[in-house]
Each structure stands twice: as structure tokens, then as C-alpha cells.
DNA sequence: GGTGTGACAACAA
DNA sequence: TTTGTTGCCACAC
């Protein structure tokens, strides 16, 4: 089955609450450099049952990937703000909220 | 194989 | 800052 998909989901799952990450960042951490677009596609395939923080994933510039004002964008914005992440004009200040995995977090991930 | 697509990214203006 | 262009890579036709 889809290994890449699993890796991506596991990686997304370790983004801490109140922090965000970019598609490319997730791809890199998942060991799939250059596959940012695949991360996006994968998040769209997440079964509803799964509790995955898909909403903590943004574009490299901090923008929400959905068109501003769309239902999805609003939902994502809401979920983020509930965690304390400030969203303005459909974007987040990465300087303040981007997740910076510590070395041990990365190593822990490699154990798998 | 060729071609188009996509919850992307880097860079130029 | 915002908008275009290009480069990417896995996939579905």
C-alpha cells in the first residue's frame, strides 16, 4: 500500500498544536523532498474518521492553500485560531508560528 | 509514451 | 506585496 501516504500522515500528525508547517516542510521531513504537491493531494485523501491536523499545513509563504473566503479556508482558519494561531487575510505569520522540529523529534521519527 | 493536473515552491518584476 | 513563470513529481487518462 501507499508508503508515501503513511509517511506523510505520520509526519503531519507530529506537528504540535498551536504551530504550523508548510507542504514542502512536511515532504522533506517525510523523506520525500520535492514532493510538496503530493502532500497536498494526500491531505485531501484523509478519511474523515482519522484525526489528522491537516489544517496546520500551509503554503511556504504562510498562506492558506484554499481560495480566501471559501468554506474550506474559513474552516481551516477557525481551527487554527482555536489553537491560538493568528490568521490575517488568509495567511499566518510563519515567523511566529512555524514549527521548528528539534533534532530529537526528527531522530524519533526516524526510529520508525 | 504524451499530456494535463494539482491543498506546492522559488524567483523575477 | 502581488502576480506570473518555471520547475517539480506522482498520477490519471
Automatic annotation (TrEMBL):
Keyword Ligase: no
GO MF term (any one): catalytic activity
Biological process according to GO: DNA repair
Domain Methylated-DNA-[protein]-cysteine S-methyltransferase DNA binding stretches: 6-85
Keyword DNA damage: yes
Gene3D superfamilies according to UniProt: Winged helix-like DNA-binding domain superfamily/Winged helix DNA-binding domain
Pfam families: DNA_binding_1
Alphabetical keyword list: DNA damage
Source domain of life: Bacteria
Name the record gives this protein: MGMT family protein
Organism: Neptunicella marina
Amino acid at each position: 500500500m501507499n508508503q508515501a501516504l503513511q509517511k506523510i500522515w505520520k509526519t503531519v500528525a507530529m506537528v504540535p498544536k498551536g504551530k504550523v508547517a508548510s507542504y514542502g516542510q512536511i515532504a522533506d521531513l517525510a523523506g520525500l523532498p520535492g514532493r510538496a504537491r503530493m502532500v497536498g493531494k494526500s491531505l485531501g485523501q484523509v478519511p474523515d474518521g482519522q484525526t489528522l491536523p491537516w489544517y496546520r499545513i500551509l503554503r511556504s509563504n504562510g498562506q492558506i492553500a484554499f481560495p480566501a473566503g471559501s468554506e474550506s479556508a474559513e474552516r481551516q482558519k477557525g481551527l487554527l485560531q482555536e489553537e491560538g494561531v493568528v490568521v490575517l487575510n488568509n495567511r499566518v505569520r510563519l515567523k511566529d508560528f512555524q514549527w521548528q522540529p528539534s533534532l530529537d523529534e526528527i531522530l524519533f521519527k526516524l526510529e520508525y
